[in-house]
Predict the 3D structure of the following.
Amino acid sequence: MVSCFPECRIEQIDAATQFVLLACDGIWDVKTSQQAIDFMSQKLYKGTYSTSRSVQEMEAAMVLLLDDCCARDIAASQGLGCDNMTAIIVEINQNK
């Protein structure tokens, strides 16, 4: 099924906002929004509000997210983790 109506949310960006994660349905079929955010937070920030990450660190974390969403056993996955997967992360500058 293809929809031309994306899920859109309006969220307030404040001092606690570390990043925005945009992804296609291949990611959201496997993880909830909160699971994806928790995964990226753990990989990038280790639970802290530390300084900005390098491009290489951000890229490595995205690779880990995409790999984590891929089906390990195609037959057992019932199609989950077999869809196209694209994601973009935008780090919010904490240094004002």
In short: The mean pLDDT is 79. Residues 55-69 form the longest helix (15 residues). DSSP finds four helices and two strands in the chain.
